[in-house]
Amino acid sequence: MTMTGFGQARQGRNRPGGSARALSEAYDTALLDLDGVVYYAGGHAIPYAVEALGAARAGGMHLAYVTNNALRTPDTVAAHLTELGLPTGPADVITSAQAVARLVADEVPPGSRVLLIGGEGLRVALLERGLVPVDSADDDPVAVVQGYGGPETPWSRFAEASYAVGRGLPWYASNTDLTVPTARGIGPGTGAAIEVVRIATGAEPRVAGKPLPPMHRETVLRTGAERPLVVGDRLDTDIEGAFNGGVDSLLVLTGVTDVAALLAAVPEHRPTYVAADLRGLLVPQPEVADGADGAFWCGGWTASVSGGALLLDSAGPDSAGPDSVGSDSTERGLDPLDGVRALCAAAWTEAGAGACGLDATKALERLGLG
Asked: Which residues are known to be catalytic?
């Protein structure tokens, strides 16, 4: 796979894909989200993440870390990852601040003043592009650039943005994530702050971050990836971003997306692969095969649709209904993730171009996920 299709959304899939080779061998670069993938909101590494990424890198896979958080600089992020046991340089970190800074620099004269509403990560990115950050709408800026500034951002910053946007200045935003995970819980993100300015002005910003193409353009330009694999935990940013960029994706179930949300995914939110955690990079991915009577089979599990519900059994590829094995399927060594893959195929095929509304309660209970 190459990047020749970059920027062209691929057709939505109706089942997870398979790979005869480990993903770390099939793709040259992993484009990794951070929160919920590599570490938790408090900064502690997710189980198996450091070991799995170390093994992938040792096998020749380039690791690049892609984040919508515009507050921290690449140096800060790289230092944090290195402390966790993942030696990382600033060049391996790509932020939405960098993406929006390039977007602005492509559209305003070099050396232009821009009103900065955000933190140090955005300031550094603007300076890198030869732009001059200013703090007031009265400092003759030619544009407004907004990104996450942290919970201490004063209300006066949003007022400055509103004054400038209200005068007709172009408005750019690093991303529109409404929330941000923190050690204390879920807090308001850039998108929430953008809503303040939008309500005050009626304007709409140009957005650079995931899931929009400028972020992936920035990533490919900085990494030189030829066969990239997006790895994330969010359907509406990571996976949709991969879809919009025309590249493959791996969803790991260590963050915000649970299996119920995965089954209900619309086409642009359907990942190429699904894994429990980052160890999924190190192994082949099983194929989902067609079973009898419209059912789907993967690794000993068979998924089907009946009476408005998703059904799951462990009787093999020729079965299309509940089996008599019951709860001893786990004892037989079946991988619950294979059941998830089969269920995805049944749900996505039934939903077509929409979101699946089938009842998955019993199927998920069978996998111990209810």
From this structure: 33, 35
